[in-house]
Input
Amino acid sequence: MTYYVSQTLVSVVDGKLTATETILTKPDKLAPTTETFRRMERCGIPHIAVCKHAPKRYKKLMSGQNKRRKDRMLTKAEVAEIIEELNRDAS
Output
């Protein structure tokens, strides 16, 4: 059986509660995972837990995590706006 460490963050966005779970480690045996958990707790990382590795859930969390991390390309209008602001500040 494998386990992993995850962090759950709860916040209020537009008056609604939203929870995001972030995977912090790869799945491993229980002993190394609990040791990693203890080390992270000592470092002061809040809201962490040891979870059983269910492949379907793990893949779903990982894909959601990757979607949150992707950057959006800037449009020409946004770049022009930024350059205009810089020119105004420099003047």
Q: What stands out?
A: The longest helix spans residues 55-69. Strands lie at 3-13, 16-23, 48-52. The two ends are 64 Å apart (CA to CA). Residues 3-90 form one domain.
